[in-house]
Design brief:
homodimer, 252 residues, alpha/beta, Arc Repressor Mutant, subunit A, Rossmann fold, 2 domains, seven-stranded parallel sheet, elongated, DNA-binding
DNA sequence: CACCAAACGAACATATTCGAACAATCAAGA
DNA sequence: TCTTGATTGTTCGAATATGTTCGTTTGGTG
């Protein structure tokens, strides 16, 4: 039994079951554990497998990546943005919060406030803030989006239109350099527009990954916002737009 | 069984159900609780999971409600009730689900169904079922109750009245021996009545602790239900009422 | 608020696994 | 035959994983 042949068989075994122990391989090939270790280390060096204590397995490209990592994507930046944003919201204020992971982090940051009145179309936000006794939380009705627990649709924007609040906190999927605000879902855009219409002040929260990113549906322009919270300096064109429309920029 | 392999399986379990208890994992892997604790702490350190007293769950705010459902009173009975109830619901059905921990467990049990259309005023149910691609989930709008994530109020029952569904799944706070259905919150009663009115069949789920328990607001009578699911034989008077109104009793 | 059981973490003991160094074996070529 | 390099076996101290014990913390209940 040659080394290369053994390597091939080891790889095959790992592909089959996702994992092999050293004992198993010792039994199969009738060689010493040390030999197997050398084999595994070599294969690991070539990035073919993932070495572990007691054996080896496939590279950990399992399921947990998509949702989990998306949630922590730019987590630090988002937390800083959230911390800055909640500072300008006084206790007792009324506010809209819409969809987006950034908004969920903002919701968490708001837990230290007192007596807020919140209208949201974000299931997670409703759940986070609804747990706090002294908050009044209203969820907008409508269809629940599978991907992120957002509530969307015409009924939802109608519902939003019943309210007029101090602040509207908007998460955004993309900002073009001409100042266009973009989102992927037309039904969500309806809701965001309703929020903008019914808010005395519009707060836009966005991390650097959103600048220049394209999306399908135009939501409005950056001039409709009163404050923009971000973690890196926006491109020049957007800076100019901010200036023109007197949008206050908060950089963290 | 190596540590890393165990870690991967633990993550898988948590992704599947939102929460795992230490006992569960001890049973699965045949190791001591201390080992599981070390595993969970390590995974928590890597931000993969969210550690709780007695187990661990996803970090997502809404899904961790499944953590709370683990502490539910009479959990085992409720799980059996849920299993029996979902059996009479066919794939593709449309249904209302209202407030209550039993209903949350029922929602979980429904995850194996296909193509359901659900209208609910329960944030947790919306979150549980909304995650499944092929379900259409609609949440009723209104004020969020702090204690349990229920959405209640006049706007909510108005919203419910827009729909007419095959089934109405109702959780109940108390049943008097004369067959009165009771709840603690007037605003929730409005919603429940709207659901009963707009359902072709009304399914009542209740464990033994509810029989004879008093509550403030009268919701209706047991005669309005078509099926009653419970874990122990009801008192005689209620049995008589079930008979009179031809309510089908399912005992698990 | 006091109580109790379950869960927890720290500390230690034990068993397993690891890697490094060295010896043994073998094949190929000078 | 001798040398060389590659591969494998062997040994041993270090690192890692798990079990065990025990005192502390936590969460639920009366």
């Amino acid at each position: 039994m040659s080394q290369s042949h053994r390597h091939a068989l080891i790889l095959e075994k790992i592909q089959a079951s996702g994992f092999v122990s050293i004992d198993e391989l010792v039994e199969s090939f009738q060689v010493t554990p040390q030999t197997i270790r050398r084999d595994l280390n070599q294969l690991a060096m070539e990035q073919k497998i993932c070495r572990h204590h007691g054996g080896a397995g496939l590279e950990s490209s399992t399921v947990n990546t998509s949702y989990q990592t998306r949630k922590v994507l730019n987590l630090e930046a988002k937390e800083k943005i959230a911390a800055a944003l909640v500072k300008i919201i006084p206790d007792g204020a009324s506010l809209f919060i819409n969809i987006g992971t950034t908004n969920e982090i903002i919701a968490r940051a708001l837990l230290n406030h007192r007596h807020l009145q919140v209208v949201t179309n974000n299931l997670h936000v409703a759940s986070i803030l609804g747990a706090k006794e002294e908050f009044s939380v209203i969820i907008a009705g409508g269809e629940v989006r599978h991907s992120d627990g957002g509530v969307i649709g015409e009924a939802t924007s109608d519902f939003i239109n019943q309210f007029h609040m101090d602040f509207g906190i908007i998460g955004i999927s993309g900002i073009l350099s001409d100042g266009s605000l973009l989102d992927f879902d037309y039904r969500e855009v309806l809701v965001a527009q309703a929020i903008i219409k019914n808010s005395r002040q519009v707060l836009l929260a966005t991390d650097h990954s959103k600048f220049g990113r394209n999306a399908m549906v135009r939501l409005g322009t950056i001039g409709q916002a009163d404050h923009l919270f971000t973690d890196t300096p926006p491109p020049e064109e957007i800076m100019a737009a901010l200036d023109e429309y007197q949008v206050i920029l908060h950089m963290v």
